[in-house]
Write a structure and sequence with these properties.
Structural class: alpha+beta
Order of helices and strands: HHHHEHEHEHEEHEEHEEEHEEEHEEEHEE
Helix content: 25-40%
CATH topology of the largest domain: BirA Bifunctional Protein, domain 2
CATH class of the largest domain: Alpha Beta
Number of helices: 12
Number of domains: 2
CATH architecture of the largest domain: 2-Layer Sandwich
Strand order of the largest sheet: 1-11-12-13-16-10-9-4
Strand content: 15-25%
Number of strands: 18
C-alpha cells in the first residue's frame, strides 16, 4: 500500500508511476480526500481545546459562585459539534485506506514498458533443449499411458482442474518437493516452516490478495480463506512486528498445497496439470531492509534457478514488463522452463521484490539502533512450483517406450529408482 505522505510530496511522480501500469492519475482525488480527513482531525483537536477551556472556565465560575448556564450551554454545543467530526474523521480515514489499498505498487525503473507478456525482457537462457528421435508427448499423455495420472478419477471426486497421481508419479512429486526444500535450507539458508493453509481477512489483505483478488480465492463458510500461495502465511509472520535490524534478513520456506479458483482462465490449459485448483509449491520469502532488497531479489532468483539446473531442465529468466508485473510487485523475474510436448517455455517460478508495499499494509517494521522504525522490504518467489516441475521432468526425460528417466539428483529420494515404467 502507498504512503499518502509520499504522494503529497510528489504527486506528479506518483501519477507518472501509475501511468506505467495504464492507470489514470489518482493523486488529485487521493489528496482531496486526505485534505478533508486532515481538516476533520484538526477540527476535532481545535474543538477539544475549546471545550477544555470552557470546562476550565466553568470550574472557575463555580468556585466563584457565578452563573455557569451560558458556559455549560456553549460546552454542550461544542461537544455535539466535536462528536460530529469525531465520527467523520474515521470514516474519511477508512475511505482513504480503501482507495489506497486498491492501487498497485509502483514499478522499478528497470521494468520495461509494455502491455503484456510479449514485452517481457529475456535476461538469460540456460541449458540445451534435448533433441528427440521420436514424436514427443505431453505430460498428460505420458502419465495416463503409465497408468499413474488419473484425471477422470479426480473429476469424479472434485470436478475439473484436479489430478490424482499414483505410485511412482506420486512419489516423484514428493521427491521433487523434498529435493527443493533440501537445497533451499542447506545451501541458501532458508528456514523450513509449516504454516496454516487457512487464514483470516487481515492476512490476505496484508499481502495484497484482498480486496482486489477475492474472486481468485476460495473462502470457507466460517470466513477464512484457503491460501493461494504460502507467501501469504510466511510473509504475515512479520505483521505488526518491529524487528531488530540485526535479525534481518529473515529467510523462510514452506512446501504447501495452494488453492486458486482460476477465475480468469476459463478455456485455458484445460488438459493436464498446468493450471489446477490445487497444487503443491515450494515458496521462498525474504524479509529484509531497503538497502539489501535488490541483492536479496537476485539471490532468491538464483536459488530457484539452482533447482532447475540441478534437474537439468532448460529454462530462461524473463524480466516482466509493466503490464505483466503483479499488483504488489515492484519488479519480477519469471523463470520459464522448456516444455517439449508443447514446444514452448512455461512459467515455473516468479520471484518478486515487493519493497515496502506489503509491509505498509501489515505494519511490518524494523529498527536499526535507536532510530525510528522503518518498514521492511518483503520478497517472495516460487522455489519452484512442484507440479510444473513434475510436468517438465516427464516431458524432458521421456523415452520412446513411454518410460521416464528419473533425474540423477532425485534417485536418493526415490529409493534408488532410476526409471518409471507402466504400472
Amino acid at each position: 500500500m502507498h504512503d499518502i505522505k509520499t504522494i503529497r510530496d510528489d504527486a506528479a511522480g506518483f501519477d507518472e508511476g501509475l501511468a506505467r501500469r495504464g492507470i489514470l492519475p489518482l493523486s488529485h482525488e487521493l489528496l482531496a480526500l486526505d485534505e478533508e480527513r486532515r481538516r476533520a482531525i484538526a477540527e476535532v483537536e481545535s474543538l477539544r481545546s475549546s471545550r477544555n477551556l470552557i470546562a476550565k472556565r466553568i470550574g472557575e465560575a463555580k468556585r466563584a459562585k457565578e452563573d455557569t448556564t451560558k458556559l455549560e450551554a456553549d460546552g454542550a454545543a461544542l461537544r455535539a459539534h466535536m462528536e460530529t467530526y469525531e465520527a467523520e474523521a474515521p470514516k474519511l480515514e477508512a475511505m482513504l485506506r480503501d482507495m489506497l489499498s486498491k492501487i498497485p505498487n509502483l514499478l522499478d525503473p528497470a521494468v520495461p514498458e509494455g502491455k503484456d507478456e510479449n514485452s517481457n525482457k529475456l535476461e538469460k537462457s540456460w541449458g540445451a533443449k534435448r533433441e528427440f528421435s521420436f514424436p514427443v508427448k505431453q505430460h498428460f499423455e505420458l502419465g495416463e499411458a503409465l497408468g499413474l495420472m488419473d484425471f477422470a478419477g479426480a473429476a469424479k471426486i472434485a470436478g475439473s482442474r484436479f489430478t490424482v497421481l499414483r505410485g511412482a508419479l506420486a512419489r516423484l512429486e514428493r521427491a521433487l518437493g523434498q529435493f527443493m526444500l533440501d537445497v533451499h535450507t542447506t545451501e541458501y539458508g532458508y528456514s523450513e516452516t509449516t504454516v496454516p493453509l487457512l487464514v483470516n481477512d487481515a492476512t490476505m489483505f496484508g499481502t495484497g490478495q484482498l480486496p482486489k483478488f477475492a474472486e481468485d480465492l476460495f473462502q470457507t463458510t466460517d470466513g477464512r480463506w484457503l491460501i493461494p500461495t504460502a507467501e501469504v502465511s510466511l510473509t504475515n509472520l512479520a505483521a505488526g512486528e518491529i524487528l531488530p535490524a540485526a535479525k534481518l534478513p529473515i529467510r523462510v520456506t514452506a512446501l504447501t498445497p495452494c488453492f486458486r479458483s482460476e477465475a480468469g482462465s476459463a478455456g485455458r490449459d484445460v488438459r493436464g496439470m498446468l493450471r489446477q485448483h490445487q497444487f503443491n509449491k515450494v515458496e521462498l520469502v525474504s524479509i529484509t531492509t531497503q538497502e539489501e532488497s535488490e541483492a536479496e531479489h537476485e539471490r532468491m532468483t538464483r536459488a530457484a534457478e539452482t533447482i532447475l539446473e540441478r534437474l537439468e531442465l532448460p529454462y530462461r529468466r524473463m524480466l516482466l514488463c509493466a503490464g505483466d508485473t503483479g499488483f504488489s510487485a515492484a519488479k519480477t523475474y519469471d523463470l520459464e522452463v522448456w516444455v517439449p510436448g508443447q514446444q514452448t517455455y512455461r512459467e515455473i517460478s516468479s520471484c518478486s521484490n515487493m519493497r515496502a508495499f506489503q509491509a505498509r499494509r501489515m505494519n511490518a517494521r524494523y529498527r536499526a539502533g535507536e532510530g525510528k522504525p522503518d518498514f521492511v522490504h518483503t520478497l517472495n518467489g516460487s522455489g519452484v512450483a512442484v507440479g510444473r516441475a513434475l510436468i517438465a521432468v516427464l516431458e524432458n526425460y521421456q523415452n520412446e517406450d513411454g518410460s521416464i528417466t528419473i533425474p540423477g539428483v532425485l534417485h536418493r529420494y526415490m529409493g534408488g529408482q532410476e526409471t518409471i515404467t507402466a504400472a
